[in-house]
Amino acid sequence: MVATTSTGEGWSSRSAFILAAIGAAVGLGNIWRFPTLAGESGGGAFVIFYIACVFLLGLPLVLSEIFIGRVGQTDAVGSIRRVSAQSKASPNWSIFGAIGALAAFLIVSFYSVVAGWVLYYAGVMGGDLVQAIMAGDPFRGALAGESQSQIQQRLGDMFASPGLLLAMHLVFMGLTLYIVARGVSSGIEKAATYLMPMFFVLLVGLVIYGAVEGDIGDAIAFLFTPDWSKLTPQVMNSALGQALFSLSLGVAGLITYGSYIKEGSGLGPTSALIAVADTCVALLAGLMIFPIVFAVGLDPAAGPTLVFQTLPFAFQTMPGGALFAFLFFVLILVAAVTSSISLLEVPTAWGIGERGWSRPKSALIFGTGAFVVGIACLLGYNIWSDVRPLGFWSLFAETDILDTVDGFTGKVMLPVGALLTSIFIGWKADENLLRATTGLSPLAFSLWRFLIAWLCPIAVAIILATGLFPAILGGQ
Ligand code: PFF
Prior knowledge:
- There is one protein chain.
- By secondary structure, this protein is mostly helical.
- It is built from 18 helices and no strands.
- The protein has one domain (14-473): Amino acid/polyamine transporter I, CATH 1.20.1740.10.
- Helix 5 (95-134) crosses helix 16 and helix 15 (359-379) crosses helix 16 (401-428).
- 56% of the residues are buried.
- The structure holds 4-fluoro-L-phenylalanine (PFF).
- 4-fluoro-L-phenylalanine binds at residues 24-25, 27-30, 104, 107, 245-246, 248, 251, 253, 339, 342-343.
- It is found in: Membrane.
């Protein structure tokens, strides 16, 4: 076995860590997936249940992962091993660090493909904006002169073109790899310090635009008025899964980022800030998208194409649509970059800590590997559209390559990672170590211990079981 070496890298300040961790949490999950799921699941009841999941299950897990990293001071596997040693638990618990690193590697492969679609749309909207400016009408709607079917067809045309998808995937993965290879403080931290303020300015600008030009009243009613009859077991299951994904849990991402915290405790408020910020961004994304969708009388339940087909059409009829459509796709892109670097960082840190590779070598190996897996994912939209990688498994019998990687990581690996984390922290980790490192007040500590030892494992086990055996929920 190779001895675990601390990478010695670290955040330059506490706020740098917080910014980077919020950057990791806020991503496609918040701006693409959350509104999609909220729209499909009928709004209010889903949203309220989701918020409960974030704070009752997600927040205790965020704190647990950061705790492990803070104590471990190295990659996820080595960090868990160190906490185990200090708690007299078996070193085999480090397996969930390895599962997490593998999951992060797989997720970044398709995350980059989806971010590539966003990149393409940012380019299309950017070109459209330039045309509008040249025509002396910079505040016109987006894609002037295109019919709704032409706008919809663009997505199909993009999927049908492997070369286009590949080029976009290459650019996005290349950027991710470059930032990760530069290191924690001069790569990841710097990217977060520039990109996150830009992200928040864009987000607030777009929410105000949606409120002024769109139908904010309908959007608020849709997102916050619960119709409890819509809270079916499937909806609860997807809300729980989304909470894990959105907070970047179960893939050891926060263990890895937490390991670069050099000093100080106060992990409780930091964790709460991450969970609150991530949730606010998801809600704001809903408050940005649905007023626009409703203003034009479109369907909020369009599914994954909401952002790529419904919204561009909505932007067509709105004043300033060309400009704001462009800003909208730039916003998603910025969010995606700060998340993809956190995903690639998990296996990269593993290569550095467990294999003794240099950072550029490790980033290159995993970045290239994820790029190759991503190529298979994007070919699944065209020349390999018949391929069903897990077709022998009824759950994935009809699922294409990208959705299989997404589904397998989201429904299996992520909940397994979260389940093992909660059992490890709830039942195995040394109590004094937990108390001293987290710096929680006695009341907060007892509450955390209860949630992580009881509620999290039970709830996550239910997600896992119902995700794997949908028949439990009465078929899907
Ligand atoms: N939280 C990210 C999102 O919502 O898009 C996705 C993600 C990033 C998951 C980083 C896991 C991770 F380690």
